[in-house]
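Much of what follows relies on a compact textual record of a protein's fold. A record is reproduced here so that you can trace the correspondence yourselves:

. . .
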Amino acid sequence: VQLVESGGGSVQVGGSLTLSCVASGDTIGRYCMGWFRQIPDREREGVAAIESDGTTSLADSVKGRFTISRDNVKNSVYLQMNSLKTEDTAMYYCAKTVPGSWDVDFGYWGQGTQVTVS
């Protein structure tokens, strides 16, 4: 399975970005999918997850600012990020996850897209 993230970039504080994750090799609509972020030398953080029925979960740090969605026709998952803060700077990854746990199935893990907020 291949997950390819895109949409990252450099943005000013208060700006917005939309990340995309396109899957090939499997139909991800039947899985809980999540967005994670990581900064060097820090633990991976679960940011948002969306279950197969559309139920979403968001980390407290992004509630009210980020939205996760999916398009099963396009076999894709998205992360809309608004009101970005410097602390949102990280590499963002798309992955298959377990509802309620932020556990990652590394068989479904993308290469990441960098988000830099300054």
In short: The chain has a mean pLDDT of 96. The two ends are 34 Å apart (CA to CA). The CA atoms of residues 51 and 90 lie 24 Å apart. The chain is about 0% helix and 55% strand.
